[in-house]
Structure formats: C-alpha cells, structure tokens
C-alpha cells in the first residue's frame, strides 16, 4: 500500500508541476507524513477503518490542489487493534518512519498508551473518538487534540435522557473495566447520584470477551433496574442486550458511542431494536458533512462508518494547521489549532487550550427498524 501510494504522489506532483517546489522552513521532508493509527483489524475494526477512509479522501483532496506549501501529503497507516500494548509499538513505528502528525488513535486506552511516545517526539496527535476526559483535562499531553466531546459530556447526555426523558428511577451502571468504559460509567454514576431523582442500584464491571454475561444480567434483574447505562464497546453490549431480551426483560438499555455503530446492530440482530446510544451530534444539515458523506459513497460505494465525520474533520484540522503554520513543528501546529478556525463536517471549529474541539457535542440515538435514528 505504501509504495503504491508514494508512486501516485510522485506522478501527481509532476503532473501539477510541483517537482521543483521550493522547500518551506520547518517542513524539511520530501512529503508531509500524516499517520493514521487505530483498530483496522479485530473486533473493533469497524471503528478504525472509517478513519483510514476519511484520511484517504482528505489527503486526495489536498494533493489534487497541489499539496501543502509545495509538498504532497503521504499517508502512513498502522493498525493497533485498539490494544494499549500494540499501540505503543504502532506509535514507535510511526515515529521511526518520520511521521509529522497523527490522526488517531481510536480507543482511549490505546491513545493513552501511545501519547507519551508522541509527546517525547514532539508530534501532534488528534483523535476522532478517544473520549476519556483525562486525555485533555489532565494537562499531561499538550500535543493531544480531539474532534469529539469527552465522556463527562457524553455521560451527562445519557443520564439526563435516562432520568428526564425515560423517567428511570433505578439505574444499573455497567462497564467493561477499560479506560473508556469505566471512565464513562463513573461519570454516569456521579451524575445520577447528584441528580437526586434516581439511584444507582448496581455498579459493576464485566470482563471483555467473556462468552456469557448471565451473571450480570441476573443482577440487573434482581435489582429491579428500569434502565441500564453501559460503558464499553459493541461486542459486550450485543451479548448483554441479547441475554436481557432472552430473559424477556423490559429494562431500557442505554449505551455510548462505542455501541452507536452499525456493527452492533448486525451482531445483536433483532435484539438491538429499541436500544439507545449516545453519539456525535447529527451534522447532516452541514453542507460539508453532506459532501464528505457523498465523497465516501462515490469512492467506496457504501455509507461511511463510525466516527467518519470526526475523522474527516480531524484530518482537515491537522492539515489546515500545518498549512497555516507553514511548519510541521509541534509548537507551530498547536498554535494554529488553537487560533485558526477551520470548516469541517462537524462544524467550524478550533481547539481550546486543553485540546478539546469547541462546539462539538453528543445526541441520543435509538435503533429503529435496524438503524440508528436520532431521538429528537
């Protein structure tokens, strides 16, 4: 994939008359290297592959216009399977290959594991989907940005919906023990307790990859929960929901953007019907969102997957920052990200001093007739 991509870039550069372009200060390489890191295989590939496609389309768009300041953009794509221990190797490989900026990682745990490596190398990283609050709020990673709101905002959206819309009084909060799922669940628990309108009747973690979740479903049933808030990903959620339906439980199941994915619906089948999940706000009325979706359909002959818009927006933001800064140096890119607005599928955005995109948020969706529909 890489050698073929380089060949196409060289041909494009010659065609556009850019082969003799004058080098720009702070941009020493022959190309601007955009790394893409995330799960591209395994159970969570449906979260990572849309990011690869988003990056491909944005890079093609930039290169068709002549690249950035006379340099073509080159993609370096690495698979971390959403596992922290693999993500460190992925980050090291990208740094060794001379990456300038990184789009990724996808999962919060993998992102957290990789960030110190990028920080030491002075490389800016932007995730479309890593929502763990500490990634920005700790202040440990001045090189990290994201185009999705954090889990505290997501948990607040879920809890407000459970209490104020559904009217839940007894809520079971379950998680997968990971940085993402557990972190979200802890925020949900705190928001429920603070509300004074409902109680947490169960707070417990499950083991990812387990064959059977009968025990946790029995606990949900015994505690007479009217709603479940689950922090985690679709493989576990589909099993829990299916077991609940098998036991004919009427308990409302509410989850997160780790479940707001078509793969969940495919795996859970008819048991997915009625499930709620929070996800990035609907941007369909944004012309850039519509254009990005249409570009995906034209290029890949299918609808885009999870976090595609956020990834597309992140790729635009990163390359725009390099263009405006006239440099691939970390400090220059960070300054541009925080001061320059950029039009993207998720809106006109810039980033605050912590690295969070200003203006993005979450909405609640429900599975209806085999697809997620936003709950108005």
Task: Please provide a written account of the structure.
The chain has 376 residues and is an alpha/beta fold. The chain folds into two domains: 2-148 and 284-362, 3-Layer(aba) Sandwich (Rossmann fold), CATH 3.40.50.2300; 152-256, 3-Layer(aba) Sandwich (Rossmann fold), CATH 3.40.50. It has helices at 2-15, 45-64, 84-96, 108-121, 134-137, 151-165, 179-195, 214-222, 234-246, 262-268, 287-300, 308-325, 330-339, and strands at residues 32-38, 73-79, 101-103, 124-127, 144-146, 170-175, 199-205, 227-231, 252-255, 276-280, 342-344, 347-349, 362-368, 371-374. Strands 7-6-8-9-10-13-14 form a seven-stranded mixed β-sheet, sandwiched between helices.
Helix amount: 40-55%
| N-C termini distance | 43 Å
Number-wise, the strands total 14
Which architecture of the largest domain does the CATH hierarchy give at level 2?
3-Layer(aba) Sandwich
Radius of gyration, in angstroms, nearest whole number: 21 Å
Order of adjacent strands in the largest pleated sheet: 7-6-8-9-10-13-14
The number of helical segments is 13
Strand content: 15-25%
Cα shape? elongated
Structural class: alpha/beta
